[in-house]
Amino acid sequence: MAAAAAGATERSAAGYVAMVAVYLNAFIICATWQGITWTYASEIFPLDIRMLCVSLTTADTWLGSFIIARSTPYMISDLGT
Q: Whole-prediction pTM value?
C-alpha cells in the first residue's frame, strides 16, 4: 500500500479484474444474500430461539462483510508486485 500512497500505481488487466470482482461481490451480496439472513432466519426458527438465530446470522453477515472490507485493499495493492 505504500507504493499506492506514494503515487506509483500501475494499471494492468489484473487490477481491472480485481476491481470488477470487488464491485460484483458487493452487488451480488447486497442484491441477494444480504436480505435473506433477515427474512429467512426470522421466519423458520421457533419463537424460543428466534432471537438467538437472528443475532447469529446477523453477526455472520457482519463478520463476512468485515473480512471482505479489510482484505480487499491488501489484495488489490499486492496485484502489481
A: 0.59
